[in-house]
Structures are given as C-alpha cells and as structure tokens.
Write a structure and sequence with these properties.
This protein is of the alpha/beta class. It has helices spanning 18-28, 57-63, 78-87, 100-103, 108-114, 139-145, 148-152, 167-190, 200-207, 209-218, 254-262, 265-269, 276-281, 283-294, 299-308, 319-324, 326-330, 372-378, 383-391, and strands spanning 9-12, 32-37, 67-70, 91-94, 119-124, 194-199, 234-238, 244-248, 313-315, 334-336, 346-348, 352-354. The strands form three sheets. It has a seven-stranded mixed β-sheet, with helices on both faces. Strands 7-8-9 form a three-stranded antiparallel β-sheet, sandwiched between helices. It has a two-stranded antiparallel ribbon with strand order 10-11.
Length: 407
C-alpha cells in the first residue's frame, strides 16, 4: 500500500529549522519534497553544528528524505522556473521574512494564477495580522513573547530562561505540517487551493496550552527554575525600566546593525567581538558589555531601535502581558468562547490561519460521555444495542453531577 502522502509534490523553500522539519515530516509520510536552495552554500542550516568529520546533524535531522536543487530566486529567469515547478505541485512551503516572496513576484497572489489548486504554506514569526506580522523572528523571540521564558525562568521579575531544542521551531514545525495536511484535505473535500500561515508565536501558545489555560482561568503563573542562553547575541537582556527583551541574532550580518542600535561602534571594531568566532570566544565579556548597554534605555526604546535595524527581537512577557496584548487576540491565538459553567471563558486559540476555509474554536471541552448515545446511533446501533454495550461496561452515557467546581 502506498505511503499516506505518496503522490503529493512539495516545493520546499524553507530554511533553518521550523520549515525544514515540517517538510521532512511530509517526506517521512511519502511526499516528494524538492528542496530549493541558493547556489553556493544553500540552506544556512548546512553550516550549523558541523562536526569535525563534516557531518551536520542539524541539517541531516531536518532534511532527511528530500531531493535538492539550487536556484537563485533573485536571478532573472528564476520566476519562470518557479512557475514550472508549481504548475503540478501540491504545496509550496516557505519561511522567509514575511513579504519577501511577494516582493520578487512569487507571492501567493502571483502563484495561484499559475496553479489555483496550490497550497501556499507560510511559516511566519508572529502570525498574519497586527504590527508584528511582517517582522522577522527566530526561536528565542517567540519563546520570549509567548510567556514561556517567564514560565521557565522563575516567575515575574526573575531572570528568564529559554527552553532547549529550538522549542518554538520544533513546535512550529509540527503545526506547519499539520496545517499543510489539513489544507490538502480541504482541497480534496472542497476543491480549493489556499494560503495558510503558521507562526512560531502561535505554536508556542499552543505548546503551553495546559499552563496558559490554567492561567487564563485562575490568574496563577506557573514557573520553573531559571537559566541562561547559549549565546550573548541570541539571548535576553534587562532594560532600564526593569523589563526584559529578547535579541535573536544568528546571521552575522546583523551584528553591524546591533552595534548601530546600541551606539557602540567600538564593539564592531574591537578584536574581541569583530567576528562570530571572536564573539564566541569572548562571550562572557561580550555578555557583560551588552548587559550594561541595554540598561541605558527602556525596553520599548530598545525594541524600536532594534526593529529599525531589522534585528529580530521582542518583549519577554509573562502570561498576564500575553493576555493583555491585543496582538494575540487579533491573530486568534487567544479567544473567548462560551462555556456552560464559566463566564468570560478564555482559551488558547487556533494557530493555523487559512485564507479560504475558516476555523473556529467550536466550544468548551465536552462533559464525559455526552455524545456517546448519538454517536452510537449514527454508527447504526439501536437502543437495545446501546443498552447492551452500556451494561457490559463497553460504553457509558454522559456522567451526571460532573459539572465543574465553579458551577
């Protein structure tokens, strides 16, 4: 029997971690995934964590089961090649800075003219709506803004900590693959191609649904022990107002912009921080310099200056700040829905947005067994069968008296 996704063709423009892991999972399920990379060095992930023997576990883990071709999307004639690639493709997957493919004529509106049935899958940092929508991001930024770094770092007012594994990337990749497969199903059911957006930020809220749901109901902020980041330039810093912000620099080209934002040209020229290797070897010194620098302005001032230099960054939120920021509600990552026992019931929303088929939180969690009888009837059982199944302990009707304590 064929693999579940056999016959599905994916044109994969994703790089680094969250997109590639998602498309690797599609390849695991039998999809033909063609990874399109820049000539020369290809996916920057090929250079991350290379061992002495040349093996790159980072790239291998995120790109298994794929084919690869090189194509410079900026070159004249590249658009024609992409048009041919997507004519018979089922999915185009990308995680560039939002708006980049649109700017070179390869956005969804461009490519749906070539293939109206195309699933155009975007993995963004912050979701498709709001002032953060078109900003770049990395894993650490989404961890901070989603409330996770406070939950892991000792609580409000304490030093934040990031989770390992590139948690926002990995969680985002799971939901990216989920969104793609769901869109393929919708196409089969309703005949529509469409654009979907899955973001690191929405994924991080979904990953924290247990503790964030508890906070949304009770106002209690759960926390774990504090820690620290692995890099001075991929970390979090306290500002003069006592608030924290994240700084996500992986691309060495961003270092100059950071020095401009900090008004520290000496850091750009200093031999201890002039290149990535020097910054790694002198991390403790550099971290102390950055800590002192960030204490000279408020968090919002720093975020504004960093955004001006196109440096991925964001505020470190606790759950209260998450719940109070309209960005989360605007994107549907947090929602209010009816509940049979609680007023103003707030929930973690749906992190995948569709341009054509709409999604919604359909209600609160069901009471135990509330749909058993109806489901059995729909399956063709009659009432005598249902009673027999119940008496044998195979099924149970809705439990009475199981209302929540707050009722």
């Amino acid at each position: 029997m064929p693999a579940p996704l056999e016959g599905i063709r994916v044109v994969d423009f994703t790089r680094y971690q969250n997109g590639p892991h998602a498309t690797a999972m599609l390849a695991d399920m039998g999809a033909d995934v063609l990874k399109v990379e820049m000539p020369g060095n290809g996916d920057p992930g090929r250079q991350l964590g290379v061992a002495q023997d040349g093996f790159c576990s980072y790239f291998e883990a995120l790109n298994r089961g794929k084919r690869s071709m090189t194509l410079d999307l900026r070159a004249e004639g590249a658009i024609d090649v992409v048009h041919k690639l997507v004519q018979d493709a089922d999915v185009l997957a990308e995680n560039f800075r939002p708006g980049y493919l649109d700017s070179i004529g390869l956005g969804y509106d461009d490519l749906k003219e070539v293939n109206p049935q195309l699933i155009y899958a975007t993995n963004s940092g912050f979701g498709p709506e709001g002032e953060w929508a078109r900003r770049g991001s990395f894993d650490v930024v989404a961890q901070g803004m989603s409330g996770a770094m406070v939950a892991l770092g000792g609580g409000p007012g304490e030093r934040p900590i990031t989770a390992p594994w590139g948690l926002a990337d990995q969680t985002g990749s799971l939901l990216f693959a989920y969104g793609i497969v769901t869109a393929l199903f919708a196409r089969a059911q309703h005949g529509v191609g469409q654009k979907i957006d899955v973001s690191q930020l929405g994924a991080m809220l979904t990953m924290q649904a247990l503790s964030l749901q508890a906070y949304l109901h009770s106002g209690f902020q759960p926390v774990l022990k504090p820690g620290r980041s692995f890099s001075a330039t991929f970390s979090w810093y306290q500002a003069s107002d006592g608030e924290w912000l994240t700084l996500g620099i992986l691309d060495p080209k961003s270092w100059a912009g950071l020095c401009v934002a900090l008004e520290r040209p000496d850091l750009f020229e200093d031999s201890r921080s002039a290149d990535p290797f020097s910054r790694r070897d002198n991390e403790e010194w550099l971290r102390s310099e950055l800590e002192a620098a960030f204490m000279t302005r408020t968090r919002d001032e720093w975020i504004s200056r960093l955004i001006e230099q196109r440096i991925p960054c964001g505020p470190v939120y606790d759950y209260q700040q998450v719940a109070e920021d309209n960005h989360f509600w605007l994107n549907g990552y947090l929602q209010q829905v009816p509940h049979p026992h609680f007023d103003e019931h707030k929930v973690v929303g749906i992190p995948v947005s569709f341009s054509e088929t709409k999604t919604e939180v359909r209600g609160s969690a069901p009471e135990l067994g509330q749909d058993t009888e109806l489901e059995l009837l729909n399956l063709g059982f009659d009432w005598s069968d249902i009673e027999r199944l119940h008496d044998a302990g195979i099924t149970a009707v809705k439990q009475q008296g199981a209302a929540a304590a707050g009722d």
